[in-house]
Amino acid sequence: MPRLSQWFSQTASATSRWTGRPSAFLVCCLIVVIWGVSGPVFHYSDTWQLVINTGTTIVTFLMVFLIQNTQNRDNIALQAKLDELIRVGKAKNEFIGIEHLSDEALASIIEECERNRPEALRRAEARAQSNRKAEIDAARKRASRRAEQPTAAKRAARRKRA
Predict the structure, then answer these.
(1) Which entry of 105, 115, 125, 162 is 20 to 30 Å from 131 by CA?
(2) 94: in domain
(3) In-domain check, residue 108
(4) Beta strands of the chain (E only): which ranges?
(5) How many domains does the chain have?
(6) Is the pTM of this model over 0.70?
């Protein structure tokens, strides 16, 4: 089984590197153009439509697994780097490996971190929220003033009456 896993990992990495290139996108565009141009030749038949539908479905299905494999590898590498930074730094070593905890345990840790957050951060967040609220209030006032101002059509109608 390790050979199969190694083969899949190498194949997934190579495929994701190739499919992430502009040339792969251009090849896919070319295939779609060729399919579209061939429509009149096949009289836009059900089989003609089935070819592109089946092809894109198969490719999408397989790409989901390749993308997931790449995401998993990236996340594992990122976690290893973060764990090493925690280990050699002044951070709490008990945070190493918390990605394996349950959702409830993670939520509890996040709540504790929020409670222990420095007061300066809390004040900065409160200021940002009040600034945002002031921006929203100012935008509402501008919109109300614009709505109250007579439009060009209303001014023209008043001039005709006068």
Answers:
(1) 115
(2) yes
(3) no
(4) none
(5) 2
(6) no
